[in-house]
Amino acid sequence: MPSYVRPSLILNVDIDERDFDDEIVADIKRSYSYVAPSQIKPADAPVDTDDVVWPVANKMTLTVRMHRPYWEKNDPEAQELWEAVMPKWLHNMFAKVSNTITASNKIRREKGRPTLDFPWTGINFIDKMDVTVKAPEDSSIPDSTIDLIEDLREIAAAGAFGEGAVAVCIPSKESYDAQYAAAYAEAKAKAEAEAAAAREAAEAEMAAAAMAEAEGFEEIGATGDGTEELVAAEEVAESADDAAVAEEKLVVVPEFDVDYTLWSVTFADGTVKTYDSAKAEFVD
Q1: Quick check: pTM over 0.90?
Q2: Which of 32, 45, 158, 161 could form a disulfide with 165 if both were Cys (CB 3.0 to 4.6 A apart)?
């Protein structure tokens, strides 16, 4: 009997309000229609500062519902249903969603449009546990997410979270934001140093060209009308202008390995606590 039971799936898609419009809603519904029905809504845009420009606030959440007990690992019938259905079903759904994200973004790039990235992935087991995980750079859902969910079920069954845990974010938003801000500052400093070096090189080249131009004008009577010297000077000036524009449009993309150690655990009463997965204990 368990092998014939299947969960139902809804895709809840949050799109950064700066990018949200009817076109993107239609595109998502069309692209993911073969996977599951989708519900799309705008999400509050992050507040950028002079120090950090945050990534888009997009999130893809797989909302799972099954009208029979399946989550509680200590319940023999629920565990039997989980083992018979959920790992294979989750693997298939993760693969479908990941493949759709990848294929959709490939088409966007080919059409010269920006990709639709999902920095965070959610798996919401309705009335059981809402899991949010930082997605990799390509916004896919790794197969290892299934192992993570199994670990969460084990932790919950062992009572490590106590009573009333309803949501887990891995890593915690606070932990990830701190990691991102530090990596952004490092990448920004590196980019600014490279831009400054390019500017200095362009200025030195421009000064050398100006000197050569001046010397060239003195030699005009003997060598010609000075056209070559003028063209060379203009090319160097354009190079300096390009360097200035590149510095003005400086784009910082931090690259770093995410530390998933600290989790945030939310309880039914709204309490949020930080769980250290390495120490297997709450730290606040």
Answers
A1: no
A2: 161
